[in-house]
Amino acid sequence: MAGGMAGGIAQAFAWTGLVTLAALFVYFWSALMVGRGRGVYKVPAPSMDGPPEFLRAVRVQINTLEQIVLFLPALWLFAAAWGDMAAALVGVFWPVGRILYALAYYRDAKKRGPGFLIAMLPTLVLLLGALAGFVRVLL
C-alpha cells in the first residue's frame, strides 16, 4: 500500500502524532544529556552517583520518564475523545514545559518549578478532558 497509513490513523491524528514525536525527542535528549554527563563528570555506568551537575541531569531524565508515562496515554485518549487538533493544542505545552524544566534544573534545581507546571497542567487537562469525553459518550 503506497503511503502507508496516510489515509488512516496517520492522517486523522497527524498533529497528535507530531506532539508525540516531540515528547519522545525531548525524552531522548534528556537521556543523551545523562550520557554526556557520564563522560564530562567521569561517572562510569552503572553508577548513579556523581557531582551535583550529573545528578541534576539524571533527575531530569528520570522525572521526564515518570511524566511521559502519564502524558502520552492522556494525550491519545483526549485525541480519541475530542479530536486531533484539540489534543495537539493542549499537548504541545508538555514538550515545551519539559525543555524549560530541564534547562532550569541543569542550572539550579530550585528554578525548575515553572517548567514543571507548564508540562504538568496540560497533562491534567488531557486526563480530565479524556475522562469527560468518554463519560460523555456513555451518557
What features would you describe in this structure?
The protein has 139 residues and is an all-alpha fold. Helices cover 80% and strands 0% of the residues. The protein is built from 6 helices and no strands. The chain is elongated, with a radius of gyration of 17 Å. The termini are far apart.
Jot down its keywords.
139 residues, mainly alpha, elongated
Topology (SSEs and partners):
Layout: H1 9-12, H2 14-40, H3 52-82, H4 84-91, H5 93-107, H6 113-138
Helix pairs in contact: 2-3, 2-4, 2-5, 3-4, 3-5, 3-6, 5-6
Question: Quick one: how many beta strands?
Answer: 0
Tally of alpha and pi helices: 6
Question: Can you tell me the overall shape?
Answer: elongated
Radius of gyration: 17 Å
CA-to-CA gap between the ends? 39 Å
Q: For the residues shown, what is the average pLDDT?
A: 95
Helical percentage: over 70%
The description of the largest β-sheet is: none
Structural class: mainly alpha
Task: Give the percentage of residues in beta strands.
Answer: under 5%
Could you name the ranges where pLDDT drops below 50 across 5 or more consecutive residues? none
SSE order, one letter for each helix or strand: HHHHHH
